[in-house]
Amino acid sequence: MERERNNQNSALLEEQSGTKLFCYHCGDECTDELISIKEKIFCCNGCKTVYEILNQHDLCNYYSIENSPGLTKKYYVKRNLDFLDDLSAKEKFIDFTDGKISKATFTIPQMHCSSCIWILENLYKLNPGIISSQVNFLQKKLFINFSEEKTGLKQIVELLDSIGYEPLLNLEEKQEEKVKAENKNLYYKIGIAGFCFGNIMLLSFPEYLSIGTEELPEMKRIFAYINILLSLPVFFYSSLDYFSSAWKGLKKKIVNIDVPIALGILVLFIRSIIDILFLNGAGYLDSLSGLVFFLLIGRLFQNKTYETLNFERNYKSYFPISVTIRKGNIETTIPVEKLETGTRIIIRNNELIPADSILIKGNANIDYSFVTGESIPVSKNTGEMIYAGGRQLGGAIELETIKEISQSYLTQLWNSKAFSKEDESRIVSLANSISKHFTFIVLFIAIAGAIHWLIVDAALSFNAFTAVLIVACPCALALSTPFTLGNTLRIFGRNKFYLKNTHVIEKLASVNHIVFDKTGTITENDAALVNFDGQLTHDYKLLIKSAVRNSSHPLSRAIYNYLHDSGVTSIESFSEKTGEGITAIINGKQIKVGSEKFVTGLKTSDSNNTRVFISIDDTCPGSFVISNKYREGLKGIISSLENNYEISLLSGDNDSEKENLTKFFADEGELHFRQSPHDKLDYISNLQMNGKKVLMIGDGLNDAGALAKSDVGISISDNINNFSPACDGILDSKSFNRLADFILFSIKSRKVIIASFILSFIYNIVGLSFAVTGSLSPIVAAILMPISSISVVVFTTFSINFIARKERFI
Amino acid sequence: MSVVFVLIGASLLVASGFLAAYLWAVKSGQYDDKHTPAIRILFENNKKENSVENRAMSDENKDEKSEKE
Predict the structure, then answer these.
(1) pTM of the model
(2) Distance CA B19, CA A117 (A)
């Protein structure tokens, strides 16, 4: 990832013939005045400070492992970490303590390269109280052992903050432990099954090749007994999951794919025991253990998960862990869970509002992009209601909470029953729908065979019955799905489309209605389309750019980026009025940038467009019109999906963009504006009630309900490690233009599954023709079973990769 | 031919040893993170030694402390 960025940087360098300078620490372009130490240059003082800290402790190796490995500190805001001294907060991060040595675990999303690992594992050089630190890179976790006497949690977090690796501090419960244990169990089961399989195979060789069985009958018997011993752990431990899954299915009256598998395993085991103990035979224990071993490997392959990504986020992961409250004149921090209604809280720059509140004091300028996806902040007056989930930009404000956290608008959305995803999917997987018919047919053949042999030769009846069930055990069938979908999942992941699990691919393939959200989903979040309505001279550009440079308002930043080809000049004075605009004096000229009322004193008449007016010494050369910038490739996606899918758009905004949107969406009737989160949810349930299978593509928390309700919910994210609501998949916005290809690919992988089913049925028919005659020898079973399984695995892996290559996914 | 049974017993014993080693490896968490160790090993040795020394020292300290208690 890092290398990619560096390549981009060097590409940029070449393109602009070396005129631009890049920060030694973070690799960002240095746009402002130069900050340098010796010949090293930095983009901001934050980056320089980090370099100084590392240099002082002889840790400059950080910069030699990767080029410019740091993260920009330009937008860094110092956090108030006092609550980390609070006991209840400590419990959340400290895994173990004996009073002297403590172990703590942090999640650090900024970790991205080997330099990060190196510096984070050398923390003891920066703080002698840290005994050791270890990184799990894929989980972005940092484990720290530290001495309580020499340092504390707060100091460690401050240290991490100061070098740019800010740990996530939120209320999210620790839930990964369970997944980890499950994964470990699978490794145990595979290890044991593999061990037993190999040894049973070895001990069965004399039987396969008929060596020595005649001369030394007791050898054959002892080998068979050892085989029984070896098969016990396979049957009673490794194959346990298949029995419990089959049982669960049967209890719900569903014949899932595990039913015929469990039946096959059970019959194999019983028949082999009877064979060996009473009939002096060899049994099929090699087939049994091989079957379980291959099935478990398939499961491991399917279980690929994106450990760093969290698909089950709830509101708690968005909220800060503590909040500053004010009683009289004393300010204290309390854990956010203990916040009650009627409490005065202080929210500082860049802090989240944890509960619905009334503004008491201060200039509130609330960024609701978490909730609505709308990036332009809203200003509020004293006495107005502010909903939870907003982020304050600007100075500190004082609020009085009017609802508890769990009762707030945002959290109610999360807790609403309609929002919680139902366990049972409405789309049944292909393997399960086939296995129902399959199981009944196999049982029918087995019983018919048994009856036939009862009449002809009663001694062969049991053999024929069990042989059919053994051969029909759908090993290949059960393997084709995990390998096809596991491969597809990996190919998607390589193209920055991360799915929660393999079931999502099958669901994606059966979708027939696609719903898009507007803001942040089909529009770009931080890029706005800026146009100037009027005449801009070169001098004006210089003045405006210099003025807006000092403001962090998104609109100012959009204008600043728009004027990228202009230079900047020094500024004499600057003031910003929240929600109105900025005033700057440059070279004796007064420059005003802001709303029409602020700049010209007149009220705006046209409310459909976002306009920023400018005036220079009371002359108004015009205004900037800022509109949404649609993501690249949107037109192509919509037109390639239009023929096969119904498409609609839900937007929380007004219909000012309607005209632009009709260029993309052919059907005007499917554009819906002013949709509240609940409207979106209702819209999806209505579609589902009409039998539609819905794919929802959204981003903000306002889509959370719709994403959960839809059959497949995909959230678009500019940075996959950042916030995204609960969903089935996360699509990196860089891969947005391939969305249609992803959907089509999922359909193709379903076709591959169907083809591999046909292949495995052919094997079954061949095997059954042996079985019904009652003459299934162990060696035929031992050959047929692995060949069918392996060839199905090879077939699916090969065809999926072939298709992916054709589609330019790899 | 009875030597075959001795050999079978011996080979099973050796194989069980490897199985035990594998189970121990899973249990001790070697399969939890398959990515970071691969990167860690490429870091320069002298730096790493320092940290090992440091860790060893702190372990000794810990031992001493527990002994005192």
Answers:
(1) 0.76
(2) 32
